[in-house]
Amino acid sequence: VGDVLSNDGKTLTINPKESKPGDCGPVSIPRELTAPFSASAEPLGDPLKPQSSAQDGLVGREQRSEEGVEDLASLDVLHEPAILHNLTTRCDASKYYTSVGDVLLAVNPFKPLDCYGTDSIQAYSKPLASPQTLVEVDDPPHIFKVARAAVRSMRTEKKSQAILISGESGAGKTESTKHILHFLTHCASGDGPRRMSEAPVEEKIMASNPVLEAFGNAKTVHNNNSSRFGKFFQVQYNNNDTIVGAKVLIYLLERSRVAKIGPGERNYHVFYQLCAGATAEQRQAFDLGPATAFYYLTSPDGIVEEIPNVDDAREFSTLLAALKSVGISATETNAIMQCLAGILHLGNIQMVPKAGAENASVVGNMETLQIAAGLLGFEFITLEIALTTKGLATSRSSCYSIPLTPHQGGGVHLDSIRTLQHCTMQPPTTHYPIVMEEASVARDALAKSIYTRIFDYLVKKSFEKNSLEQLCINYSNEKLHQLFIKAVIEGELKLYAEEGINVADCAKNAEKVSNKAFLAALEDRRG
């Protein structure tokens, strides 16, 4: 800036390096305004921490230094090193939540914490100091604080609220979702916690977590309980702030994991839980052995990965209790477990070349085929045809099947699944061989298709029927969806048509997403 001409302790006189005619010349600045720039001034301190005022006192500054800053927005310098330094400082002090304004940063400690119990729920569900305030300023950052802000915004603004939980694998998204649902179900009416027995719908919401985790989560290289699907969890309230229903939308279930897992990974939890926790009667009826006996449950190096501190048999008991809570009967539960066992045996079916036929294959272990067919409810001959041939339905009166090579017969194409249903009514009559290069089939398609249907069934069954209020809420949502279609999609199509743009294909796609049939079923007097 310039050269220091004098420094008498009260003022600092600076002569600019580059002066022009008309400049004011040396400038005197009060000493208190230049303390950080003076050679005799006290050091700035850690630039990654906010500067405390004199009223904060020495104790306040020391505490902030030891535990970091609760809100990153209060840092003097906001960049990546400052953020990482502050998060590390807070983690060292067992403070795993940090705010960035209204956003909450959560660092996964990979260990159980004691900050989610009844005492914490009561602390964060207390009445607010001011009805206009959505959060308590003095409350430390916490996942319950975010949930409470959403509930209060819903009550005061009379609008739906959304909580977005994002992060890489192992960041703690699944656990955060469970904690939020736990808080919401305890604070469904009023500010105080409620007993689960008072609200069956709330009990079903909490019981759905073990079901979704068992059927939708698996061990990966980076995470022992990784969700292999995306979900949108909707909790529905009435005007009395009481939970009347819930809905789960599932996105992109990782179907490929059913039939293939990578090194250091596991299949979905429910398979290992079944093998470890099945009763003696189930083991005999389903011909179940340990997890090491099934191809789908072993990694490429032939071993079954273990999850530290997890007892699969105990988790299976928890799953059975959860299925009962969400409304799955004992008969349905046994049928689901039977299908899961059938999938495991299906994976053990081996394909071998057919003698005397270069481009065809047969099942090498018929006993395993018979077990899988019996558990899945198929005739074993029909299942063998579906596994080893490619069916071509040419008319309603005939069905042709083309034998597959061993590589093709290593799986079931989706066409074969449809042929399986068709040929059950009328067996195939003609076989045509095909070359290996013409087929791009996978034996595991049938297993993946069955598992996906089981998963979808459980998600829908968990909240199949709640109350008349639930039906009214669903009806309102569908009416809003129809309004969206009319206002956006149909309006745009009309505009395109006026401009001479061909929108025939777009109109067909718009008709597919229309919910007119659903609304007609409810609104029609004969419905």
Summarize the SSE layout with pairings.
Blueprint: E1 2-7, E2 11-16, E3 27-30, H1 57-67, H2 80-92, E4 97-100, E5 103-106, H3 118-124, H4 143-157, H5 173-186, H6 200-216, E6 217-218, E7 226-227, E8 230-237, E9 243-251, H7 269-277, H8 280-286, H9 312-325, H10 330-347, E10 351-353, E11 361-363, H11 366-376, H12 380-388, E12 389-395, E13 398-403, H13 414-425, E14 430-431, H14 445-462, H15 468-498, H16 504-512, H17 516-523
Parallel strand pairs: 13-14
Antiparallel strand pairs: 1-2, 2-3, 4-5, 6-7, 8-9, 10-11, 12-13
Describe this entry's structure for a reader.
There is one protein chain. The chain has 527 residues and is of the alpha+beta class. The strands form six sheets. It has a three-stranded antiparallel β-sheet, with no helix packed on it. Strands 12-13-14 form a three-stranded mixed β-sheet. A hairpin with a 2-residue loop joins β4 (97-100) and β5. The N and C termini lie far apart (83 Å). It has helices spanning 57-67, 80-92, 118-124, 143-157, 173-186, 200-216, 269-277, 280-286, 312-325, 330-347, 366-376, 380-388, 414-425, 445-462, 468-498, 504-512, 516-523, and strands spanning 2-7, 11-16, 27-30, 97-100, 103-106, 217-218, 226-227, 230-237, 243-251, 351-353, 361-363, 389-395, 398-403, 430-431. α5 (173-186) runs antiparallel to α6 (200-216) and α7 crosses α9 (312-325). It is 42% helix and 13% strand. It is built from 17 helices and 14 strands.
